[in-house]
Each structure stands twice: as C-alpha cells, then as structure tokens.
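Appendix B, example 12.
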Amino acid sequence: MKKFLLTIVSLFIFMSSVLAEEDKESNLLTPNAKSAILIEVETGEVLYEYNSHEKLAPASMTKMMSLLLIMEALDNDIIKYDDMITASSNASSMGGSQILLETGEQMSVDDLLKGITIASGNDAVVALAEAIGGSEANFVKMMNDKARELGLKDTYFQNSHGLDEENHYSSAYDMAIIARELVAHDKILEYSSIYETYLRKGTERQTWLVNTNKLVRFKSGVDGLKTGYTSNSGYCLTATMKKDGMRVIAVVMGEPSSTVRNDEASSLLDYAFAQYRLDTLLSKDKVVDTLVLEKAKKTKVDVVPIDDISILHKKTDQAITPTYEIKYNKLKNEIRVGDVIGTLSIMNDEDVIRTVDLTVKEDVNRANIGELFLRYFKNIITGNLGI
C-alpha cells in the first residue's frame, strides 16, 4: 500500500461542523413545518434540519422517486424521449392533478415528463410507470427496491403518484436524498425549470401547463424540483437552487398553506447561500501523483481524482491548512479511465475531512512481450537495469 503525503502551501480553507449544534434540531427557519431539511448537494452535508426523520405523507413529492427511475430508464435505453406511450384506462382514471389523458391516447415520453414535472400529472406518471415496469404495481416495487438501495430508512411507497394511501410515507431526509440522486440527471432540471408551456399544442385539446413550484419563476437560481399537497400531507415542497457554483436542496413538509410553504423553503435557500460557501480544492483534471508501472505500455501514469474535490464551509470559519493522503489498491498494468485505483483523503491534523476515489488520467495498456524485451534491451545499453 503506497502512501504519499502532499501539503498544500498557502491554501486557506474554511471548515465548519456544518451548523452550530444548538441550531441542528430547532425550527427557527421553518416554524410552521412538521419537518424540514437543507442539504448541500456535492458533499451531501446537512445545513439545517428539523424532525427530518419523521415519517409523513409525501404527497406528490413521491414523484421524485418515479422520476429518478424514469431518468435511469432513459439512460439505459429502456425508453426514449420520442417514444409514444399509450395511456391505459388505469392511467387515465387517476384523480387529483392530471394532464387529462384519455384512454388509448398516445403521448411522447418528452411530453409526459413535462406533465409530471410542471403540472404534477398523476395520469402522466402512471402512464410512464406502466411503460417501464409493465404495471404500476411492479414499478412501485422498483421504487421500494431503489429506496433500499439508497439506504432510505423512513420511506415506503404504495403508488407512483403520491395520492394518500395507507402505509405510504417518507421523511424530509429521505426526500432530500432522492432529490440529490435526481438532480445528478441534469436533464430533469430542464423540465422542472419550465414555468409554463403547452401540451397538444395546435389541437382542440391544447392544454396549458403552469409549474406548481412558483419559486421557479419568482426566485432567481431555483430550477426545481417538486411540490406536493393532499389533505393528509399538508403543503410540501422540495426546492433546489444553484448559485456561485453551489447547489442546495431544501425540503419542507406539512406546511399550512402554499404561501407559507414557499416562504419557508425560500428562507432555507437564502440561509444556505448567506452562511456557506463551496470551495474546490482539486479538479478532476488535476494530477495528484505519477505512478511507475514497469509492465505497462506507458510506464509513467498520471493519477487524478475521479470527481472534483470540494469543501463546504461556513463563511465565518477560521482557516486551516489541509494535507492530502493517498492510498493505492493493488495496481494492475491494465487500467481504464474511471477504474478506481485508490483513494485520496483530505486531512485536517489527524481528522479526515473528505475522501475521493482516484483513477488514471488516460487508459493504461499492458506492454506485450516484444515491448518488454526492447525495454529490457534498452536498459542494458543505457545501464538502467537497477542492479
């Protein structure tokens, strides 16, 4: 196990314990919410929380998990944006918010996604759930399987849309984790950031869609993500905002009105950008070490982080001087970009602040016998055998 210590000179990083302990479980920013949470997306750090693990009805925020599975299906070519989906009688009979699908009506995946993200169409999400899962019931099983995969402890789904149903619940914390996974799919934000548009444009059944998330229009930087309301859940909102290179997610649940919901979610977003900053220590293009692999085609191999390395800190924190510690796995002479070859830990004294996987900057190929012989012969001539 190779160990390499890099010290960054004259680098000032501000670190925090994220939030003063006494503020962690107060409801100062969300006095009317049953539960709330605020997280920074890249690090996943919690900036504020109140009753964040309480199991509550998530209403149409349920659709974030449905959308996550839909985006994964698109990534895996199970469905395509221009595929035409036929609405079943089950889909067209959905109550609550809808885009007025008729049984047998065909609509593209692209338009159905607009119907879900902008208008929170229950009929639209069921149509796509059936197309991906074969039935809504099987799709809901996929949703619960995904919840387990993500390690969600406070969530169980009974449907894909979020209408009230016994034993259908989630928490602000789990909703934030789902939202974090969802915004990793940049395409979803292209939909959720649309304030208004039309479906079936130019036809007798032209339908005007207006985003249920009013922050998209009235708060700069907000580009999603999902509202929710039933008589059981109260008013809910998962909002995401990006500013100065930092993206945060705010979740409020059980609010008494849509106005209060929007105001308190907005307060959480304002708090994040007023109090915190995200600094990039190393980009994924930065070479942090160079390895020598004697049996590789190219013996010198540059090592880079698999992702950008950023530190979240409070703007009022004191500076520290971090160090890097690199640990390698057992190395091979055949490595592809993206293969994990080790880890880089950012240290403050003996405390690990962040850990990121390492990979190679370019593909490494094994040298063939002829290349190894020529290399050996050259070393004999130049006296570089090391013996």
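Residues 258-275 form the longest helix (18 residues). The domain at 3-14+283-382 is CATH 2.60.410.10 (Peptidoglycan synthesis regulatory factor (PBP3), Domain 2).
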